[in-house]
């Protein structure tokens, strides 16, 4: 199931050329991932407080395909590709209308608060499938 996260480009998101600064796409997809996980019933605060588990980006592949500009209405589409005991692989696409502007494949890992790999609880693995 694909999650859709709408957003608007603000002036602060753009560079001197008036296009979205490249690093801001990473912020956009981070927000979309957070909302997708929340909508699937995963409370990241409780996961940290009760299980000592946090998510971290392990790897990202990004393609910048076409620029977004100030006041554009965008949608970030997030799809889960794989979930293992400690890893979540996501596909994320930023679109303006039917035009794909940015695409990323993101690998998240579950870690303890000390940075060691942690096994995701079964209920969370199931909710993310």
Automatic annotation (TrEMBL):
Any one GO molecular-function label of the UniProt entry: fatty acyl-CoA hydrolase activity
Q: Does the keyword Hydrolase apply?
A: yes
Does the keyword Membrane belong to this entry? no
**Keywords associated with the record:** Hydrolase
Determine the domain of life of the protein's source: Bacteria
Residues covered by the Thioesterase domain: 18-101
CDD domains, alphabetically? 4HBT
The entry sums up its family as follows: Belongs to the 4-hydroxybenzoyl-CoA thioesterase family.
The identity of this protein, by name, is: Tol-pal system-associated acyl-CoA thioesterase
Organism, per UniProt? Maritimibacter fusiformis
